[in-house]
Amino acid sequence: MLSIALPARGSRTLTQSLHGQLLAAIRSGRLAPGLRLPATRTLARHLGISRNSVIAAYEALAAEGHVAARTGSGHYVADAARAPARVTPDPARARERHLNAAHRGLAAPADMVDPPRAPFDFRLGVPDTSTLPFDAWRRLSARALRSMARDAPGYAGPAGQPALRAAIAAHASLTRAVACTADDVLVTAGAQQAFDLLARVLVTPGRTVVAVEDPGYPPTRAAFAAAGALIVPVPVDDQGLRVDLLPHDARIVCVTPSHQFPLGCVLSATRRRALLAFARRRGAVVVEDDYDGEFRFEQRPLDALQTLDDDAAVFYVGTFSKSLFPALRVGFAIAPAWARAALLLARQRADWHGNLHVQDTLAAFIAEGHLARHVRRMRGVYGERRRVLLAGIARDLGRWLAPVPGCAGLHVGTRAIVDIDLARVVERARAAGVNVDRSGRYAMGGDVGDGLLFGYGGIAGAAIPQALSTLKRAFARA
Amino acid sequence: MLSIALPARGSRTLTQSLHGQLLAAIRSGRLAPGLRLPATRTLARHLGISRNSVIAAYEALAAEGHVAARTGSGHYVADAARAPARVTPDPARARERHLNAAHRGLAAPADMVDPPRAPFDFRLGVPDTSTLPFDAWRRLSARALRSMARDAPGYAGPAGQPALRAAIAAHASLTRAVACTADDVLVTAGAQQAFDLLARVLVTPGRTVVAVEDPGYPPTRAAFAAAGALIVPVPVDDQGLRVDLLPHDARIVCVTPSHQFPLGCVLSATRRRALLAFARRRGAVVVEDDYDGEFRFEQRPLDALQTLDDDAAVFYVGTFSKSLFPALRVGFAIAPAWARAALLLARQRADWHGNLHVQDTLAAFIAEGHLARHVRRMRGVYGERRRVLLAGIARDLGRWLAPVPGCAGLHVGTRAIVDIDLARVVERARAAGVNVDRSGRYAMGGDVGDGLLFGYGGIAGAAIPQALSTLKRAFARA
Fold it and tell me: Distance between CA B235 and CA B146 in Å, rounded?
């Protein structure tokens, strides 16, 4: 729950105060779009105030458009209330009323482009591309173009080029033991499009409850919220998603089992079985987001949920943004047969299909073994950085942070073990040239604690010790 | 209206017969998803039957999920009822109930990939790529890759690469006199994504009325229908869209003014002014789809609607699918300022942004003048084919077909001037090696007549006379 401080019971400003604090939480993004607010009865009991005060605060928020009431299922944070600041009304913008409610009154989000790099940069989600075999890519790119020049293709099918689908099926089988053939693969414009297409075909607006990890990956929940899903955050601990806390009416569960985003833990084998049992018992489906699971640093990884699933309940989503580079914008979904026609139709309506030259180049790149070699090489590089990082965190930051146990991916998550304002530490570190992220930024409103997140895709191993020393000074002065 | 043949008034099978004929029209796609059915009173009067019979037929269709009733606004063809054949139920597909109603029970559409080419191919929508300067493209592609290898980009903004936005603004100003700067341009994954994003930000599901041309381009209306729009078809004559027949409650008007798809006519200057006046008076916006307007064959083209608009009401959508090639999958929207933040947010949620290598290559290709030169050269090539085609149609097919007046684009539309079954002519022509399309296939249910459509992007000028002779024999035997 949010921490809410209220004036004495019976105070005339009680409703106003509650309203103000909820509004601030919504505007700041702590209460994210689509989030189901606590039932009025529950919140009243929790805060020790009358239910009527809570109802009055909710109604004021609803009247302002910040929350939406849905009959029989409570109050939800409205989509339009999202973090982007509202723009001052301007009569010349009268046309703006043509936008639907979810898109009115927004300023362009500020976080759309990666911020400038810092001298020591632990940012998340960027791979090291310095050893990418660009020569091979360029050669295969030129070859694919020559072939297109001979026989320029017209429009193609929305599933993706057959050669690329086959290459992805082989790659996913090899690196993640995902059981699939080329027919099961839908090539997408990055993992984000996979989430968007899944939301389009699975969500009934205003009805479908989608459980997401808290803290979790905001773009996934944004795609489902945009399709009208009711988003319910579920806590994460060191074993991953608290499957025991899934809401019974969840129809879709979004999860990052190999390397939880952002904490970095692994969904335990017990939880994996429990999640699939939940899906079977409750008739839910699972969206398995395996964004950087190719990079793992232990001998025996846990099977993907997709591998364990014998009930056609799991959608496996992968991407080449981490194993190659984000600007490629190629991802994929491995989907059960029952959903494939729907996904193809949704893709056709969304943008028909992807650029064929890019797909042909990537297919050849995988088929010639360049991707597998690059992943193998980078597994060594990242593994070494991870080792240096964990040792350094223990040495320099052990008084403040404890690493979350994990064994894969491109970043390490930690938890604060003392009461400290990490936002200030982050600010001070940035002024000293170190860019580091906080897990608290990815929370949906639950009291999920805070911690620092150390991406090692954008920092050389040799630079890590100095970065951590700098960070230590930022902590010491906090 | 549909032609409906009913048994005698009072017959006990009347409702059943009406239901069956409406169902057949829905399944075949003649009544398209999102279409508003005639009011029960109107249809009853039109058919000379009791209103109760019509209500009963509508209710049966609603119970089966083929139409949706919306309080106060009538009956609409449901999205799930779309042309793709329903698949025989299979117990193993029990999971299918997880799909939302719009996506349940579909087989993958058959028309997702271009059909094989015929010896004489008048297919629509494909440009001639034989003279594309692929060498220049390959050189610029390699250069863009080298630059990426030096400084691999992370995630970029959803609007597109700044250099490409600037190049598109210059290109659109030059070729179509569209008034814009780089800031106004949103790069999209083909024109289809532009329609999809516009639908996402402009449509309030179940409420927003979208007027489309009848006959018209099915993927545009599919994108709006998928977003929950109420689609209303509006007839087209030789002057383009019948602006006088626009429904008063239309909030969005989709139109192809330079070269109506599929008939090929031009929206007259009077109608252009009337459409913008309608938009101003009724508070509507216009989506101007200018898919092949760069190829025009008269001295003085009419201004784009976007150029004439002084009310921030027009979205101009362009594509490189015709001026370069469809597999590129790059299009763009030039949007009024009030909608830009919303479109960027929608794009970010949909797939973040496009492949940067493709965008950088295209930006350089335009900046170095290759696109302008190619368009100029192809204007000559297509103009000559068009001349040969129009002369040949007059000579060989003038007994059956009259060309629709037009002056731009990659195909000529015609209308049948005698009562003839063009579907059979098309079938017979195909057996003789000639592929030609029919405008009737693009109708939404209005009695819009039929005609043949002659694309000249995929056929050499020299082959046109023989193709028309073959077609003449197919007509003579009809």
Answer: 52
CATH number of the domain encompassing residue B47: 1.10.10.10
Write the single-letter amino acid at B52: N
Quick check: is A102 in a domain? no
CB atoms B338 and A113 under 8 Å: no
| Among candidate residues A369, A384, A411, the one where a domain is terminated | A369
Domain that holds residue A169: 134-369
Is residue A2 domain-resident? no
Chain A, 314-353: which have a CB under 8 Å from a chain B CB?
Answer: 325-330, 336-342, 344-346, 348-353
Q: Do B349 and A192 touch (CB under 8 A)?
A: yes
pLDDT at B12 over 50: yes
- The pTM for the full model equals 0.83
Share of chain A above pLDDT 90, in %: 67
Per-residue three-class SS string for A332-375: EEECCHHHHHHHHHHHHHHCCCCCHHHHHHHHHHHHCCHHHHHH
Residue B110 lies in a domain: no
Task: Say which CATH number the domain at B442 has.
Answer: 3.90.1150.10
Residues A238 and A290 in one domain: yes
Query: A323 and A437 in one domain?
Result: no
How many structural domains are present in chain B?
A: 3
Q: Say whether both B364 and B382 belong to one domain.
A: no
Q: pLDDT tens-digit profile of A141-193?
A: 999 999 988 877 788 889 999 999 999 999 999 888 888 999 999 999 999 99
CA-CA-CA-CA dihedral for B357, B363, B365, B370, to nearest 10: 160
Is A158 within 8 Å of B353 when comparing Cβ atoms? Answer: no
The answer to whether B113 contacts A84, with C-beta atoms less than 8 Å apart, is: no
Question: With contact defined as beta carbons under 8 Å apart, do A123 and A100 qualify?
Answer: no
* Claim to verify: residue B382 and residue B361 sit in the same structural domain: no
pLDDT at A244 exceeding the cut of 70 = yes
* Residue B84: per-residue pLDDT: 41
In DSSP terms, A214 is beta-bridged to A235
Judged by average pLDDT, the poorest of A428-432, A471-475, B92-96, B220-224 is B92-96
Q: Is residue A25 a contact partner of residue A2, using CB atoms and an 8 Å limit?
A: yes
The confidence band for A11, taking pLDDT boundaries of 50, 70 and 90, is: low
Residue where one domain finishes, among candidates B313, B338, B369: B369
Exposed / middle / buried, residue A147 (Cβ in 10 Å: 0-12, 13-18, 19+):
middle
Q: Which residue has 């604060």 as its token pair? A: A416
Q: Please tell me which of the candidates A208, A311, A326 has its beta carbon nearest to residue B154.
A: A326
Of B125, B196, B202, the CB nearest to A100: B202
Query: Tens of pLDDT along A360-405?
Result: 999 999 999 999 999 999 999 999 999 999 999 999 999 999 999 9
* Chain A residue with the nearest C-alpha to that of B349: A223
Q: Check whether residue A361 and residue A385 sit in a common domain.
A: no
Decide if B111 contacts A213 (C-beta within 8 A). Answer: no
**What is the reported pLDDT for A224?**
95
Show residues of chain A in contact with B154, CB under 8 Å.
114, 125-126, 326-327
What CATH number should be reported for the domain holding residue B339?
A: 3.40.640.10
Structural tokens at position A343? 């996904």
Residues A327 and A416 grouped into a single domain: no
Whether B239 is covered by a domain: the verdict is yes
Q: To the nearest whole angstrom, how far is the Cα of B214 from the nearest Cα of chain A?
A: 19
Residues A285 and A431 in one domain: no
Residues B143 and B75 in one domain: no
Instruction: Note whether ipTM > 0.85 here.
Output: no
Between β-strands B434-435 and A209-214, what pairing exists: parallel, antiparallel or unpaired?
Answer: unpaired
| B157-188 pLDDT, tens digit each | 899 999 999 999 999 998 888 889 999 999 99
Question: pLDDT tens for residues B420-441?
Answer: 999 999 999 999 999 999 999 9
* Percent of chain B whose pLDDT exceeds 70: 92
